[in-house]
Protein: ABC transporter permease
Amino acid sequence: MHRRPEGPVQFMTRYVIRRLLQAIPTLLGVSVISFVLVYNSPGDPILIRTFDPNITQETREILRRQLGLDQHWTLQYIGWLTGVTLRSGDVVEEFTRDDFHCSYAAGLNTTFCNSGGGILRGNLGTSIATNQAVWERLTERMWATFQLGVSALLFSLLVGVPLGVLSAVRQASLFDNSVRVLAVVGNALPSFWFGLMLIYYFGVIRGWLPTGGIRTVSLTYEFDLVDRIRHLILPTVVLAVGGIAVISRFMRTETLEVIRTDYIRMARAKGVAATRIWFVHALGNALIPLMTILGPAILGVLSGAVIVETIFSWPGMGRMTFSAAVQRDYPTVLGAVMFFSLLTILGNLLSDVLYGVVDPRVRL
Structure:
């Protein structure tokens, strides 16, 4: 009995499901490593939260116990993961609250408390600093990070792709060598230093662009597109520098391979215009492998956003994560790390799927 050949839709569906299932242990590994690193980081969130000489040490210990920070890290991890915390003895009355239901198991001499949360249920926890749900804090700042990230990715493509193609076409020329040197410098350039230099020159000395923020403070809260673009320019350039360096080098390598193929030689022999050869025939095929770096590009934007948003006071998820780390707001830091990890995995999956779609010869 012959098995019917699998169609492209069925194959792609099975591939996506398999990759999503493989992502589960990856996310669990990320959660363990992140939690251990955060748990062993220096600083005390209780001391930061209760920075008041009138608050006694006994009050701090009570607060620490209520938040579960007095337990071993394994018990804290289980509570964060599942929303269920374990306490030795009968402490039902002490820990039962409106959002915290506890029950005592006499045989085990253990109190089980269910907060209704846990990341396995899609609940990233509650911020220690603001007592606000971590997911709400992320969603409030998600749009700002999305604007900056998309702007940086588009700018990287619009600049990096032409630079890479022209560098390959003019191989071993002064332009090619200059682009290669600038790519190395751009890849190694510290974003915090570059951002501060741009702020100092364009914002302080020249006064051409805002030094930070997402909009100009005014009595009205009406959206101003021109004002938003002016605030986007500097952080977008800083965030895109690394992407431009990677994409230009990648496109140079791919274009060099394409222009040596037979069909490009045939186009030259037929007298096709050089610009049409480079930017239509060669570029179209050289862009296909570019799909493979979509996932790393998303990771680069997310990791770079932490520094760039902090420097430019951009109210996004990166700046919130940095502030939470300074305040030792562990639930917010862990929630942001898990959210960024999920976006990275989905970005890698998307790049693989798009690569298979644009190039049917590739079997995923």
Remarks:
- Strands lie at 84-88, 101-105, 110-114.
- The first strand starts at residue 84 and ends at 88.
- The chain has a mean pLDDT of 84.
